[in-house]
Here is the input.
Amino acid sequence: MNPVNMGTSEIVESMEEFDSGLKMDEHDGKRHMLKPGQICSIEDDINQLFEGIDVRTSGRSSGLLQKVCKDSLRKSAMKRPMRPGSSQASGIGISESVSLKQALRGLCISQASEMAAMKRLSKPGGSSRASEAGTIKRLYRSVVVEAGESGLALNEGKGNLVEISLVPEGSTSNFSEKMSESGQLPEVELLNQSALMGEDEIIPLPNHGGYEISLAKLGRHGKPKLTRSSSSTHASEKQTVVDEIVPALAEVPVKPVEPDKEQKGKLHFTSSPSSDNNASNNVNKSASISRHIIRPVFRNKNSAKNKEKQDSTSVPSSSNQSNGGVDNNLGPITSKENEKSSVSTTTKVSSEVSSNATDSGPGKPVLNSNISNRTKTVVSKSDENSRSREKGEFSQSSKSSIGEYSSSTSISEESTLSGSSRSGYRPHMSKDLRWEAIRYVQKQHGSSLGLRHFKLIKKLGSGDIGTVYLAELTGTNCLFALKIMDNEFLVSRKKMARAQTEREILQMLDHPFLPTLFAHFTADKFSCLVMEYCPGGDLHVLRQKQPNKSFSEQAARFYVAEVLLALEYLHMLGVVYRDLKPENILVREDGHIMLSDFDLSLRCAVNPTLLKSSPTVESPKRESSPCTESSCIHPFCLQPSWQVPCFTPRLISAATKTRKLKADLAAQVSPLPQLVAEPTSARSNSFVGTHEYLAPEIIKGEGHGSAVDWWTFGIFLYELVYGKTPFKGPGNEDTLSNVVSHSLKFPGSPIVSSHTRDLIRGLLVKEPENRLGSVKGAAEIKQHSFFEGLNWALIRCAIPPELPKVFDFGNVLADMSASQNKESGRCQEEFKSTGEHMEFEMF
Ligand SMILES: Nc1ncnc2c1ncn2[C@@H]1O[C@H](COP(=O)(O)OP(=O)(O)OP(=O)(O)O)[C@@H](O)[C@H]1O
Here is the structure.
């Protein structure tokens, strides 16, 4: 949370509040807004009332008591409705009434309303002197859009859609400027979204067009331990196909940056110099954003030297030192000169978001969704993998990712990327010693982080765009997963955009079930990502080790629940993951999961909405009413209605009774609205994913959106419980055709509960629009009976089905020196001997 925002006052509004502000004129019957100056009239009314009470109670109450009551009433009148348990709201002078607060507070509508208010006030002509009640009403109307009828009390739940507009439709920059001037940045605290957040910490979400959403985030435990459970070499036959689209150039708003003299021979492809260390900078940044065309440019050392002179005035700075010293050399190229010079080696950044996501005004990035040059190359990643992977060292799976890939990026604003990428600026990881270690090394060596600071211990695996090593930050006993990518290779294979996407997404993440990116830097011709190391292998390997190669439903529920939360968070950030499969789910040392591998993800705009849930049951009153019909047809009604009125509750079964009791209780408590942050407007035509996991709409090339993640989620659950995927054919083509045309079938064995099958069925609906999760995203899926009883908020504290072998971290490096130094030496030698011309095995 930005410090600037910390002081932002909470506004809680309610219809009661409006009612108090709206006074019916007895004479003309019109409703008038009560202006601040009219508060005294309320006071007068109350005084009058009190007089009445005085008269009535004079004989019974002591004068003192009356005085106390009167005083308190007067105070109440002055303070406006205040009920037990409600917190006093301030902000722009709006107090709250508790019932609405109960209904909305947890779902941040108050903050959203404040935001909406600020937004409105920031508009030209908006009067900051508007009456308080008027402001409330305007706020209410701006925030709460009641479907059907306007002016309906918010707590009269009828399942209406309440929409919070978090994306400014208009003057983002103006707004941001105003906010920065006033020192206030509206934010939405997504309270009650326990799945996404913790109770104690707030993290910034990417800036949605100038507005910052804050999420309270989960804390996380986790120290790296050197252990590998990857002795098995189970290879699935799933193949990776990379089918690339060279996407169209995207017009992306980025902040112009200062030249950096130290950028020679380095890769530049970011729009986010991660240099801003305070919130106001963030705010100012969004205010100063201008549109530039950025193109990722690769320069090898030699070409960089040649171009150094001509680029010297335009090479962007990544402000390494200000980023906690973390080398952050991936800066944007913004000048025309660079555009020119980069033509031959550029991978253009394209964008694929729906018109919905892009047409909403200058507050949102305008993206070029044309795909200019589509080259379709199918590469069998399994072949590459089989070449590159060392047998028995790490999980082998040929379930590989297909990518007729377009980078599909709607990179909105640099603050989106830099906001959480600042070293240590990730609340759930901020106390992690690895940040300290990195800072320590930088301090010691007085330089930015580079490959020389790492001791490569062993190769963890190779992917489509790079090789991942277990690496120790020299002299710190801290282990990291170091992903090293060869820039020349990326450029030549047109994979630069994928690398960029992955890095940008990693920079945004701050979630217990997603990896933390500690640093990134370029070293000679390599781009390196310093990530959290996950020692427990992947779920593919773990599944192979299970009896019958499938997980129990209980275990599966744990893993899919954590994956669901990770996906929910990603969707909330505007990231459609697209490559869910057990191979991409790593197991942490504490047994919890980490979803990895974002190079095929789609970035898009997201517009969180608040859905007001409606009670699904009849009101208790109605249910307990006697049958008044002359002929009762209630199935449980045993007594003829003409003799004795039948009271349904007395005659229903025990189970039904319990259900009804629960329903009654639920009906009495206003159901909380649901926050839905599903990027439903995201659209891509890329052919990406993994054959067995590909959604039908991707195969059919119809264009796809976030619903593909719910399809893959269904396949994932199926594979965990049945030990295989549902549509796999003898070859990839068969698999694809099965996905499109075969109906879903469940094997007779193992026996799987109807809840699980029902959830899978809901997720594996071929039409994306009818698929579970397609409308309300994870919120919808979480409510499925498969997850009944699961405590989403505390899942990170749940005991995982399996713990990877635990090593004493203190001894890890010592152990390593004995058993693994050999390999470590080999990895180091590999670098030393080959120098800048080092070739990775995978390439
Ligand atoms: N943070 C990490 N901790 C431990 N092992 C990791 C980590 N990240 C990656 N790995 C291992 O390194 C391997 C290569 O990862 P990488 O993300 O580069 O490629 P990939 O998952 O095979 O997919 P893709 O080819 O799509 O990039 C993975 O299979 C995984 O086993």
About this structure: The first strand starts at residue 22 and ends at 24. Residues 506 and 517 are 6 Å apart (CA to CA).
